[in-house]
């Protein structure tokens, strides 16, 4: 599959506290990708880095083509907007330097796409939360967008509105868009998301859906130096590691079972001594939130 961009060896810290530690992952073209993780795990931080709003301390996010157009919708959006959708989107487009003749057809296209034609002359302040969310997404899409980034788009929406927004995201994908969103609403994962990036212990683990087909293994092994595992960080999640009296380290990892052959081969090349391999079933880790 084509990558839209690759995140390579990203590390980010705030005030000396690491949020993300040497994470690498690709973002595939024309996919819906969900970033999940506990509160404070770094979802918004990662989204902002992908959007180019903040920079990693180390590593880089490398786009597959120049001038990738990115639309970003933050978690908290202004809601007391006295303009109508037409007026608001027009002003936003003009601020971005768009010409009137390209802006007006684009606004009409977006109003159709988001089923807001009937309310195009109603003031946004009178809209429901879901309709306001749509306006924020439309604003991010005023330019032709390759990648849409949505921070918690379903937060605070009722079930019906969530379903509606889900359908909208699905139709955006059908039109060739790549979408990355952070979410707590696990229901969404089943319906529209192709890939999950889970932030856990400062690392990012990638899982392609359907989730029900993913199984995990736990592996315990000894290795002389845990830094040998750095190039496997995209495959494994370290549960814990302990230094033994021998000076070796006992490491306990979790990984997707489909990678077993590859992983064992790589560990043996690193002269690891395998102690225990067992299947685990902890799908719920992907829906673990407060
Ligand atoms: N500008 C900043 N300065 C200092 N610390 C920050 C800054 N931005 C985020 N943090 C801290 O970094 C950590 C990750 O924050 P982030 O907002 O990325 O997490 P999150 O997973 O999106 O959380 P939530 O699910 O609660 O929205 C948190 O501990 C947060 O307090």
TrEMBL record:
Protein name: ABC transporter ATP-binding protein
SUPFAM superfamilies in UniProt: P-loop containing nucleoside triphosphate hydrolases (SSF52540)
Domain of life the protein comes from: Bacteria
Keyword field contains Transcription regulation: no
Domain ABC transporter: 5-226
Pfam families xrefs: ABC_tran (PF00005)
Keyword Transport belongs to the record: yes
Keyword entries, A-Z: ATP-binding, Nucleotide-binding, Transport
Gene Ontology MF: a single term: ATP binding
Alphabetical list of CDD domains matching this protein: ABC_DR_subfamily_A
Lineage, highest ranks first: Bacteria, Bacillati, Bacillota, Bacilli, Bacillales
